[in-house]
Amino acid sequence: MKKILYVAMGLLGFATQAQEGQTVIDTTKTEKLDEVLVRSVRVKADSPITHSNLDKEDLEPRNLGQDIATQLNFLPGVVTTSDAGAGIGYTGFRVRGTGNQGINVTINGIPYNDAESLTTFFVNLQDFTSSIESLQLQRGVGSSTNGSGAFGASLNILTDAVSNEAYGEITNSFGSFNTRRATVKFSTGLLNDHLELSGRLSSIKSDGYIDRASSDLKSYFLQAAYKDDNTLVKLINFAGSEVTYQSWFGVDAETVQNDPTFNPAGLYTDDDGRIRFHDNQVDDYKQDHYQLHWNQRYDNNWSSNISLNYTYGRGFFEEYKEDQDFDTYGFTPIALGGETINTTDLIRRRWLDNDFYVANASVHYKDNSLDVISGALYSTYTGDHFGEVIWAQNAGGSQIRDRYYDGDATKNEFSAFAKATWRINATWSVYGDLQGRFIDYTTGGINSDLLNFVIDETYSFFNPKAGITYQPNKTHQFYASYARANREPNRTDFENGDPKPERLNDVELGWRFATPGIALNVNGYYMGYRDQLVLTGAIDDVGAPIRANSGKSFRAGIEIDAAVKITDKLTTQPNIALSTNKNQDFFFQRDGVLVNLGNTNISYSPEVVFGNILEFTAAEGLQLRLLSKYVGEQYMGNIDSEASILDSFFINDFNISYELKDFFIFKSVVINGLVNNIFDKKYVSNGYFFTFDDDFSVPDQVTTVEGAGFYPQAGINFLLGATLKF
Predict the structure, then answer these.
(1) CA-to-CA distance for 484 and 530, rounded, in angstroms?
(2) What are phi and psi of 608, to 5 degrees?
(3) Pair type for strands 103-107 and 153-159
(4) Could you read off the pLDDT of 310-337 as tens digits, one per residue?
(5) What is the DSSP string of 220-252?
(6) Is the pLDDT of residue 539 over 90?
(7) Has residue 217 got a pLDDT over 90?
(8) Beta strands in 531-647 (DSSP E)
C-alpha cells in the first residue's frame, strides 16, 4: 500500500511542479463542461497521439440498429466481425490486428471492459449509438486511460450532452432478416436554466442472417443533469437486456459453400433418431450501469471531475447436452431393468453474477502554454461463476437448480496518472504522460471445466509516454511519440495455461496536412511486444478466443486517411492501413516434434485494410454515400498454415439520408436507408483455427491435425428507418 501511495503522490506532484512558474492568463478558452467527462482519456487535434473522432452527426445516418462495432467499420485499420452475419447481436472489431480483448473502452471515462475477460461485449450496449454525443478511437497505446491497458487501440465514448432546448424523437426502422427497431428519445431542455431530464427507450429484434441467430435487445438511457456556468452534475442510468440465440460455433469450409447459414448450436438427436434443435439455446444477460459525474470549473485555468460508477451484470447461457456422465454433475447412478444408467441428456445453464464499482477523480490545469491533467482511479470487481442443471432425462439424487460447479473471483485495481502538454512556442510543443497501475486478482472454487481454479496474482505496471509536435505553419503538423503499455492476462488465459503479462513499446511518427479542401493524416508505427498474448485461432466451448504468449513479436505499418472536398457537393474520405505483423522465432510442436518456424504472421492481422466514404449532397438535406471496405488475406493461426487462411474481401454499402424540416407538426422528419453488400458478395469476416495431436490412429506415431471454422456474412441486405423530431 505504501508503494501505491508513493507512486500516486509522485504522479500528482509531477503535475503540480509542471505548473510552477507559469503565468495565469484569463484569456484561455474554456472547455464545454460536458467534455470534461472525457478530458482525462482523450487527446486534442495537435496531440502526438494517432486518433480519429466521430460525433453524433457522423453516426446518425447509419444508426439503424446495428451495434457500435459495426459503426466503426470505416475508420482506419478497423476490421469488424459479426457472429450472426448482419451486425446485430454479438459483434466485435479489431484495430491493427488487436481484438476486443486488447482494446480499452471507456464510457464517460468509466472502464467498460469486463474486468475478468478484458473483453467488451457491445451486445450489452443495445442501441447505444442513439445516446452517443461523440467518440474517439486512439490507435496504438494512445494516452493513459482508465481500466485495462490498450494494446491496439482505445475507444472512449461520451454520452449525450445536456440539451438547452426541449425535444422529442420517435424512430422506427425495419429491414432484412425480420429486423425491427423502435426508439423513443426526449429531453425537457433546461428547466429554470439549470435542470435537464432526458432519456431513451429502445427495442431491437432480428432473426439474424445465420439460422436461429436471433437477437431480442431492450435498453434504456436516463440522465438527470444540473448545470450552471461553472458546474455540471450528471446522474446517468443506462441498462439493457439481451437474449441472443448462440451462433459462436461457426461452420467448416464445405458448409460455407453449400449451406452458409447453417448453425450447429443446439443440435441434438431425439429418441426417434431425428435431428432437432433446442429452442432455448440462448445467451440471456442483463447489465445495469449507474454513473454520477461532478464537473467543476473554478476559473479559466482550473477544473476538476469526480465520477462514481456501479455496474451490475447477471445472466446465463443455456445448452442442450447429450450423453453426459453422471459423475460430472454429481448424479447418482440409476439401476433400471438390471442395467446401470450413468449417462443422460440434459439442459444446463452457466451463470455469471458480478458487481463492478469505480471511483475516479481528475484535476485539470491549463493556460496558453501549459495543459496538465492528473487523476486516479480505484475499482473493485466481484464475480460469481456457477452452473445449474435445469432438466435431465435421467438424474439420480439431484435437485433442480443444483450447482455442478461454483467459483468466485475478485479483482481490485488502483491507477494514477499525470499528463502534460507544454506549448514551448507557436511551433513546438512537448507531451509527457506517466501512469502506474496496481492490480490484485484472486479466484477460488471450481470452474466450468470442473477443475480447482485458484489464482492469486498481483501486478504492478509503470506506463510512461512522451511525444513532440512541430507545427511550422497552419497547414503542416509533424509529431513523434513513444509509449509503453503493460497488460495483465485474462481469466481464459489462466484457464488455458500459465500466462505472463504482456509488454508493448510503441513508436509513432506522423504528419498532418490541412487546407480548406483537403485534410490528410499520415502515420507510421512500430509496436514491439514481449510475451504478447496472441490469438491462437482456437476458441473454447463458449466461443471465447484462446490466447498464448508468443515471446517476441512486432507490428509495423503505415496508416493514411484523408478528407477531400472534390466539389461543393462531392467529398471523399479514403483511408488505408498497410502493415507487417510477425512473431519472431515462433516454436510449434508438429507431429510430436518441437520446431522453430522462424518469423510467422501474427493471427488475424491483414497486411492491407482499405476503406472509403464517397458522399454526394444531391439536394438540401439529401445525402448519398457509397461506403467501401477491403480487408486483405489474413491467417487465423500463428503457424502460417494454408488451412488457417481467411480470404480477402471487398464489400460496398449504400447509405441515403434525407431530412425534411418543418413538416406538419414536426420540427423535421429524417429518412435513413442502408443497403449493405450491394454487390451481394459472398465473404467471411472471421473464423477460428485449431490443431490437435492424433496419437491413436497409427500406433507409436503422432500426427498433427488441423481444422478451421468460419463465420459467413450476409449477402445484400437492407435497413430503412424514419425519425420524427418534435
Answers:
(1) 11
(2) -135, 125
(3) parallel
(4) 999 999 999 999 999 988 888 888 887 7
(5) EEEEEEEE-SSEEEEEEEEEEEEEEE---S-B-
(6) no
(7) yes
(8) 533-539, 545-549, 552-565, 570-583, 587-590, 593-596, 600-601, 608-619, 622-631, 634-635, 645-646
Give the amino acid at 514. A
Residue 692 is predicted with a pLDDT of 86
What residues pair up with 250 in beta bridges, in sequence order?
Answer: none
pLDDT tens-digit readout, 453-503: 999 999 999 999 999 999 999 999 999 999 999 999 999 889 888 899 999
Q: Please provide the distance, in angstroms rounded to a whole number, between the alpha carbons at the two ends of the chain.
A: 55
CATH number at residue 556: 2.40.170.20
- Residue 53 C-alpha cell reads as 473522432
Got the DSSP string for 531-564? S-EEEEEEE-TTSPEEEEE-SEEEEEEEEEEEEE
**Would you state the pLDDT for residue 571?**
97
Residue 671 and residue 661 in contact, taking contact as beta carbons nearer than 8 Å: no
Cα–Cα dist 523/298, whole Å: 37
Count of domains for the chain:
1
Percent of the chain beyond pLDDT 90? 77
Q: Which domain holds residue 542?
A: 2-725
Cα–Cα distances (Å) from 666 to 131, 200, 394, in that order, read: 21, 19, 62
For the chain, what's the residue count? 726
Contacts of 525 (CB under 8 A, 6+ apart): 50, 96, 139, 140, 506, 507, 508, 509, 555, 556, 557, 558, 559
Look up the pTM and report it: 0.92
Place of cell 487462411: 645
d(CA 319, CA 598): 41
